[in-house]
Write a structure and sequence with these properties.
It holds the Pfam family TetR_C_11. This is TetR/AcrR family transcriptional regulator. InterPro entries: Homeodomain-like_sf, HTH-type_TetR-like_transc_reg, HTH_TetR, Tet_transcr_reg_TetR-rel_C_sf, TetR_C. It comes from Streptomyces genisteinicus. Keywords: DNA-binding, Transcription, Transcription regulation. This protein is mostly helical. It has two domains: about 70 residues, Tetracycline Repressor, domain 2; about 120 residues, Tetracycline Repressor, domain 2 (Orthogonal Bundle), CATH 1.10.357. The chain is about 75% helix and about 0% strand. The protein has ten helices and no strands. Helix 2 crosses helix 3, helix 6 runs antiparallel to helix 7 and helix 8 runs antiparallel to helix 10. The radius of gyration is 21 Å and the shape is elongated. It starts with a helix and ends in a 7-residue tail after the last helix.
Length: about 200
C-alpha cells in the first residue's frame, strides 16, 4: 500500500466525535429496546453502517462499548447540587432523579437488569454509573457535617446512599406507591429526614 493510500485508510478508520456519538446512540437504543443481550457488535455496526472491525479496534469488547456509551451520555446526576442545606440538597437530588426516570425509564431499567445479570459488565457499571452517584450523595452528607447540620456520628449517614439508590432501583416494583412524581421525594421527606434529624415540612 502506498503512503497516500495508508494515510487515507487511517483517516477513514479514525472515529470523529460526531461519529462516536452516533455509535453510542445506537448502543443506547438497543439497550432500551431489548436490554443488554440485544446489544451486539454486529447490531451496532448494522445500525450505523460502521465496520464491525472498527468497533472492536476502538473498544475491544461489548462491555467496554456499552460502558463508554453510558459514560458519554451522562454526567453524574447529583454532582453540582449544593443548595446550602442538606434538606435542600436531598430534595433537589430526588427531583432530578424523578426527572431522569420520566425521560428515560427504559434505559434505567435496562442498566439495572444488566447489572444484576451480567458479571462481566458489573464492575464497569459500578465505576461508570453507580459509584459516582453514591459519591455525590456522600459528599452532600459530608458538607452537612462540616456545616454543623448533621452529627458526624449519626448512624443513618451510612444508609442514605444505599436507601436512595435502592428506591430508584425498586420503584418500578411498587409503582402504586413510588411510581409518580411524589414517590422518591416523599420517601426523602418521610424516611430520610427523620433518620437524619431534619425537621420541618417540605418547602
Amino acid at each position: 500500500m502506498s503512503t497516500q493510500a495508508a494515510t487515507s485508510a487511517a483517516r477513514r478508520s479514525k472515529i470523529t466525535p460526531e461519529r462516536e456519538q452516533e455509535l453510542f446512540a445506537a448502543v443506547l437504543d438497543l439497550l432500551r429496546e431489548g436490554g443488554y443481550d440485544a446489544v451486539t457488535m454486529e447490531g451496532v455496526a448494522a445500525r450505523t453502517r460502521c465496520g464491525k472491525a472498527t468497533l472492536y479496534r476502538q473498544w475491544k469488547t461489548k462491555p467496554r462499548l456499552v460502558t463508554a456509551a453510558l459514560d458519554a451520555r451522562r454526567c453524574v446526576l447529583f454532582t453540582g447540587i449544593d443548595t446550602g442545606s442538606l434538606a435542600g440538597d436531598l430534595r433537589e437530588a430526588a427531583r432530578l432523579a424523578c426527572d431522569r426516570r420520566s425521560r428515560d425509564s427504559a434505559l434505567m431499567e435496562a442498566v439495572g437488569q444488566a447489572y444484576l445479570q451480567h458479571p462481566d459488565l458489573r464492575d464497569a457499571l459500578r465505576e461508570t454509573v453507580i459509584d459516582p452517584e453514591v459519591a455525590a450523595l456522600d459528599a452532600m452528607l459530608r458538607r452537612a457535617v462540616d456545616r454543623g447540620e448533621l452529627a458526624a456520628g449519626n448512624p443513618a449517614i451510612a444508609y442514605v446512599a444505599p436507601c436512595f439508590m435502592g428506591v430508584l432501583r425498586v420503584e418500578r416494583l411498587f409503582d402504586d406507591r413510588l411510581g409518580d412524581a411524589d414517590g422518591l421525594p416523599g420517601f426523602v421527606e418521610a424516611v430520610l429526614f427523620p433518620a437524619l434529624g431534619i425537621a420541618g415540612p417540605a418547602r
